[in-house]
Amino acid sequence: AVIWQCDPMHGNTRSTGAGVKTRRFDDVFSELRATLQIHKEEGSYLGGVHLELTGDAVTECLGGSEGLDEDDLSTNYTSFCDPRLNERQALELAFLVAIATGRRGRSDVGQRAEHGR
Questions:
Q1: Which residues pair with 63 in a beta bridge?
Q2: Mean pLDDT, rounded, of the chain
Q3: SS3 96
Q4: Is residue 112 predicted with pLDDT exceeding 50?
Q5: Binding residues
Q6: How far is CA 92 from CA 19, 28, 77, in A?
Q7: Residue 40 CA to chain centroid, in angstroms?
């Protein structure tokens, strides 16, 4: 068996002019959305996604609905290694993935359990 996984984080790491490592939210989501589309077209399934994120209000990745830009990076950049999505960016990405996969409501698992299957 093959289990496909997408890592939209590492291939999208960039450095600013000041040498600060960062990632653009739109690049991360674009790669993930493209991966989901390819699997849909091929009739296969994405088995996992590798994300680097935190529940903290860090300013390590650019963009998202907050509109973080390079000037915001110094506000709360705490990673010693790789830039992480903050709590708002992570939730936004989760909702965008749910929309992209057509799973806007309860999961199939929850529906099966509800009906005793």
A1: 68
A2: 91
A3: helix
A4: no
A5: 10, 52, 82
A6: 27, 12, 20
A7: 18
Binding-site residues for Mn(2+), in ranges, read: 10, 52, 82
With tokens 């993935």, the residue in question is 97
Angle, CA of 111, 112 and 117, to the nearest 5° = 155
Contact 65, 88 (CB under 8 A): yes
Whether 109 has a pLDDT exceeding 80, the answer reads no
23-51 pLDDT per residue, tens: 999 999 999 999 999 999 999 999 999 99
Q: How many residues does the chain have?
A: 117
Is 80:103 a contact under the CB 8 Å cutoff? no
Residue 31 neighbours by CB distance under 10 Å: 16
Least confident of 34-38, 74-78, 110-114: 110-114
Gap between the Cα atoms of 75 and 104, Å rounded: 33
Helix/strand/coil percent split, the chain, to 5: 40, 15, 45
β-partners of residue 15 are 21
